[in-house]
Design a protein that fits this description.
Layout lengths: L5 E6 L18 E8 L5 E9 L5 E8 L3 E6 L15 E19 L6 E6 L1 E2 L2
Length: about 120
């Protein structure tokens, strides 16, 4: 499989809860990007974060090696700035080669955890 996916993706939903229940880091509330690169060259990925009440932040830069996957927690993004907790945000993911993007959230604010996952919206 070569070049599966798109080069631009959007996630309209993002939110990192401030509190967590359970052992860290496994049960820390988080948002994750799952990036799949099936192409024979590395993917140079740029992530821009959009907010309701302030200017966008980014790009955050990530490399996904050829024919590999990378799972990246939004909580771990720090350069150019950490993603704020308890704040609604959205993201735009752009790559130099086609990739597939999936979004997952673990909300562990209570002992009864919630986990959901969805595909990002592929842009032409």
């Amino acid at each position: 499989m070569e070049g599966v996916g798109r080069m631009k993706w959007a996630l309209a939903e993002g939110y990192i809860p401030r509190h967590s229940h359970g052992p860290a880091p496994q049960m820390t509330s988080h948002e994750t990007l799952c990036l799949l690169n099936t192409s024979p060259q590395e993917a140079l990925v740029r992530i821009t974060i959009y907010f309701a009440d302030r200017e966008p932040v980014g790009p955050y830069r990530v490399t996904v090696p050829a024919r590999r996957t990378k799972h990246l927690r939004f909580n771990d993004l720090t350069d150019p700035a950490p993603i704020p907790v308890d704040t609604d945000y959205a993201s735009l993911i752009e790559s130099n080669v086609p990739i597939v993007v999936q979004h997952t959230r673990l909300d562990s604010r209570q002992a009864e955890n919630a986990l959901f996952s969805t595909m990002a919206f592929p842009l032409p």
